Q: What sequence folds into this?
């Protein structure tokens, strides 16, 4: 008996419990729901087009539903948010006619589009050759990398006063601002695309007697083109956020002009309509880029 008591005294005491439900399995419905979600989610699953559209529409519909709920009410005092701050979706839709005719939506849209295209063309004309050279030659990369790093940490809005002081108020300032913004965004992506080309392709090209120019154009640039195209596509889409920064400084046509005028003199509904127009145009142009990418690079799963 004394031996049994000594054995109990030397035994390890049980660990304290974290709570009354410690070690208790979740209810069966919870386990079944979790198992169903895990079974429904599959890594890198190929989805049909209709399902992609359906899943993509869910958060958009929820956002519009929340907007509708927050602005519901016939009188301003009945609403959660004042109509002077956030008009209802129906009020925004009803103001489209005045935006189209009174504010010349089409003309201002093409003004903004022309500025984006011009700035994009100038930015690509610098970023593409410089990025290919930096990705191909280490000495060129070492020379321009400090400037690329400085540009990466430079806030894009800071370019507005810089370009204003250099080019004044006018079209040159807007195009220069957009070109610098595109250059800062695209340059590291082009360099990374060329850097990611496997060394084995270069060794094979040199074995076959390729020159430096052929190695750059026929190997590095040819293999990295799909990734460069993807960077151009994303950069052009981001340009629609840059254009508002350029146009809000100098009210001289464009979608930014409409936003500033509507903020000062109303109606406020035009502000939200212009934002929706920008999203719609950016979506359409992105689809055009995607279609072009599939035609140019059919061997890529996504471009």
A:
């Amino acid at each position: 008996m004394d031996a049994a008591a000594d054995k109990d005294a030397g035994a390890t005491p049980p660990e304290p419990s974290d709570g009354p439900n410690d070690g208790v399995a979740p209810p069966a419905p919870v386990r079944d729901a979790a198992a169903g979600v895990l079974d429904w989610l599959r890594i890198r699953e190929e989805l049909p087009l209709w399902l992609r559209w359906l899943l993509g529409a869910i958060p958009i519909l929820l956002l519009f539903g929340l907007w509708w709920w927050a602005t519901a009410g016939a009188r301003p005092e009945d609403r959660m948010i004042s109509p002077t701050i956030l008009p209802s979706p129906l009020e925004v839709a009803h103001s489209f006619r005045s935006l189209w005719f009174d504010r010349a939506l089409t003309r201002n849209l093409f003004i903004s589009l022309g500025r984006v295209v011009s700035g994009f063309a100038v930015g690509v004309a610098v970023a593409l050759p410089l990025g290919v050279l930096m990705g191909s030659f280490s000495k060129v990369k070492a020379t321009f990398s400090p400037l690329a790093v400085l540009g990466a940490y430079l806030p894009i809005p800071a370019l507005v006063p810089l370009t204003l002081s250099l080019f004044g108020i006018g079209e040159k300032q807007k195009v220069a601002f957009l070109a610098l913004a595109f250059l800062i965004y695209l340059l590291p992506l082009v360099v990374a695309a060329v850097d990611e080309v496997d060394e084995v392709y270069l060794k094979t090209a040199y074995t076959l007697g390729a020159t430096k120019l052929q190695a750059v154009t026929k190997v590095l640039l040819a293999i990295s083109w799909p990734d460069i195209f993807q960077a151009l596509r994303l950069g052009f889409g981001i340009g629609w956020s840059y254009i508002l920064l350029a146009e809000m400084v100098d009210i001289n046509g464009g979608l930014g002009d409409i936003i500033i005028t509507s903020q000062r003199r109303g109606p406020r509904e035009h502000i939200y309509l212009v934002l929706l127009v920008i999203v719609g145009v950016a979506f359409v142009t992105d689809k055009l880029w995607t279609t072009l990418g599939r035609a140019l690079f059919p061997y890529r799963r996504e471009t």
